[in-house]
Amino acid sequence: MSASGVFIGRVHSILREEFADVELSTIRYYEERGLVLPRRTSKGYRVYYPEHIECLRVALRMAQSGTPLASIQQHLVDRGLIAGDVVAVPKAAAAREGLSAIVTAYVNPTATPAPAAEPALHVVPAPVASAVSVGDAVALDTVLADENISRSAVDALRDFNMLTTFTVGSMEMLSSADAEVLRTVAPLVARGLDVRFLAGLRRTVDRELDLIRQAIEPSLAAARGDARAKALLNAQHVAEEMDALRQALVTRELDRFFAGG
Question: What 3-state DSSP class applies to 2?
């Protein structure tokens, strides 16, 4: 087994290189159905190793061809990718994970690297002399170095309320969610897009959140315990459906633009 592990946000990015439409909820659902069994940190966060990512790749390819999940699971067992006594995660337990499973992995820098044939995993060395993490936070300098993005871009993102940083001692930090935002913005900035124009996306997100709140408001009114967890999961599903609609609209308009040109 490789000594390098990553959390679900990075797994999602890796899989989207081959499966452009795969969503985070699909990864969680496959775990719920016992198709992948990531390890867990002491705080309960999923940690995925190359063999787990291979499980997901195989499952997604087979699902694309219409193979039932039970057959996919048996195939994974036959290949030795999962054990034969896999037990599915109860839906209520999976729902309690909520929407906060995007984090950054820290591993031992002296560990044996992953084999060359495995996907290139995004690994942050474990801190030695000074801490680079606080809870689920990550040092801003770590993300800047990984993504080759300038501090001026970070300042602009903060100005437009797209990013929030905080200070621990003398170190500037990001929450895991803000770190993922910065990593997602980085390739767009590298393409030459002005951060000021990207700020319009924040306004779009605010409008979409209003629509999501409207969609789940009835279930949240009396939501307690598992009911509230289901409401959170429903909010994620609504967000994914809106994202699919947005992609369909953009694709349609691009087709019209190039057809007209």
Answer: coil
